[in-house]
Amino acid sequence: MKELSATELNELAADIEVELEALKRLEGEIQRVQAEVQADPARADLFHENLAYKLHNFYTGCEHIFQIVASELNGALPTGYDWHKRLLERMAQPRDDRPAVISADAAHMLNEYLAFRHVVRNVYGFQLETERVDKLVARYPEVWKRVEADVSKFISWLRDLASRLSEE
């Protein structure tokens, strides 16, 4: 782990908290669109495309957190064709003097959203498989709660470390 001051650790925690807040807002938006799907099934295709994009945003927000940690604590992002997958895997592993950012279970669950984000980026909205969107939306609350809890625990670790450093 790179040597950071207490101030830098607190700033890092604050940066991650900003991303968590955006993800919390996204949670409400996903729920709102789900309600629209139930209220207006005739427009379900349009809503599924919207939900797919929001699931894309969910993983992207998680990845922003991972990029912050990798850049600020680990020293660099992974490189190569599979850097996104390697970044996710690294966040589930303790590194040097830092704990894992997320649990192995959370990483396993997020892997589906990483793969789906690739699909969303590379097909037309009308080509999306609605069954896959529905499956990921149904699992989303469980995955989000796990990620939120894991990342919040990591933020607490950062704040505790900063506090210990400022006492020295």
Please, could you describe this protein's structure?
By secondary structure, this protein is mostly helical. It has a single domain (6-167), classed as Four Helix Bundle (Hemerythrin (Met), subunit A) (Up-down Bundle). 78% of the residues lie in helices and 0% in strands. The chain is built from five helices and no strands. The protein has helices at 6-39, 44-74, 83-91, 104-122, 130-167. The longest helix has 38 residues, at 130-167. The two termini are 19 Å apart.
Short note summarizing the structure:
This protein is an all-alpha fold and about 170 residues long.
State the end-to-end CA separation. Answer: 19 Å
| Poorly predicted ranges | none
- The overall pLDDT average reads 92
Count of separate DSSP helical elements: 5
Number of strands: 0
> Largest sheet at a glance?
none
What is the third-level CATH name, the topology? Four Helix Bundle (Hemerythrin (Met), subunit A)
Give the tally of structural domains: 1
Order of helices and strands: HHHHH
CATH class: Mainly Alpha
Radius of gyration: 17 Å
List keywords for this structure.
single chain, 168 residues, mainly alpha, Four Helix Bundle (Hemerythrin (Met), subunit A)
